[in-house]
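Hi P.,

Sorry for the delay on this. The queue was packed all week, but I finally got your sequence through. Input first:
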Amino acid sequence: MTSQSPHFVGARPPGPVAVLQLTLHNAVLGHLVQAGQATALVFDPAWVASNHRPAFTLCGTHAHPASANLFDRPWLRADGLHPVLANLLPESGLRAGMAALVCVPADDDFALLAALGADLPGALQVQALAPAAIPPGVLDFNASAVTLALPATTAQPVFALAGSQHKLLLHEDNGAFSVADRQHPGTWILKLPSRDLGGLPQNEYTASRLAQMAGVEVPALRLLRLGDLPLPPALHTNPDEFGLAIQRFDRSARGDRIHAEDFAQVLFKTPAEKYSAACATALGQVVHGYTHSALANTQQLARRLLVNVLLGNGDAHLKNWSLVYPDKVHAELAPAYDLLCTQTVLPQDRQQPWAIGGCRDWYSLDFSHFAEWGRAVGVPWRVLRPQLLDTVERARTLWPQALEAAPMLETHKLLLRHHWKNLQKKLQYGL
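Then the structure:
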């Protein structure tokens, strides 16, 4: 048995196995083997031995101390997928819709990954292999392989995007949008309005524009009237409602794949752990310790943490922060996304998922907590303070007038203004 063979319990796995092939930037990275509920990600020896392999996950890059032997043995999971793979899949309502489209059970991560594997977040691609196509060494334990049923062909392209909000992929050509298909790659994401939460696209559009005014890097975005788009009739959308179109930072304008991973993937945390398994300090230490433009990325991270407080965004969990690999090797902080004023959904909410310098409460937070966060991350206060002062000054001078003209619902604007008044004066003025 080779060192790369998956070591399932016993001499051989119970029953037949299924195999998926994983490619990254057109090179075979490895194979994912499923036996019962267990999975093993078996890395391709040639990919492991390459001195020029592109980044798959942050702790596998040369900058990280774990990279030396991270891929020497298969990644085994007794039940389900490794978090790096599990976090590629949609959640909740979006998962149910995509699973129904490709006719696989919504709770079968392996089958869903196989069905959606042609268009995943980042640059990874996955496809099911017939038994005859499985390379030597992947099944050295002499298991019998089965062929996964391929998803039925649909007019609507299938894709995997994280999150639960219903989405479509759009193709953009000189400012004109159409629904993506196999000849026209989806370089924009269209977030559809929620049936339960009114004005959600307008909320996110406004929050993103305010964040941009405060110095936060965000992708290009458009608020589009649904009646102006050639959407599939099956969507049953109200033509007078709006959707939010966001340019993908993991695709080039031509549709080329750019690798990216959210922080649940970076930290090997399951989707269920996205609110509880990290802290703002851990994010800062990763960004400052292992990204290519370490100081600039950490300053941007601090600015975003502050803007989330100023916006009253209580949904900045692990999957709403990402790294991107623009040169295929070095990690950078990805543009900000999923920015919201969540008080419009939870009016009694007054805290963020993680503490900053020991404080989670928006209305108790001040600059001393950011200074403590900087010390824990290892960044001098003298290089963080000017960034935070600039953020506060931009928000104080630009946001009130911008909010007046914003498309956010008037009730949401009232809640956001109320939130601003309740923030600590020390935070509002950067004292």
